Amino acid sequence: MDNPNNVSVADVEPTWNLLLDQLEKMVGKRPADLNAVLFLIGIQELGTGPRRFSKEQKQDLLHIATCRVLSLSGYYALDGFDKDGWPSWTLIKPIPQTNLAAQEYFIQQHVIQYFEQVVPIL
Asked: What is the rounded average pLDDT for all residues in the chain?
């Protein structure tokens, strides 16, 4: 999973669609895109359950989720939590520089891994 340039949509798409189906069963609505799935992961990792979030907090949730899923391959490590209980992450190794499509598939692979290993719904 460390070489996002070798990732193709054909490799990810069937499992990704299965994941979206599973999430739809759980939350009652099919996530529209990768950001929607990352938002759900961010809420899960924050641990407060669903509530209203400000625009900045929503961006922070996406960051939390991205760090969490990429931590599965050693890109980030959890530092701890701030006074409000929000996790803080440190970049451990550089994330490969790729085009936008390859980057999205790279993150999708990690999201799939997250739902296989951390929150096993696949």
From this structure: 90
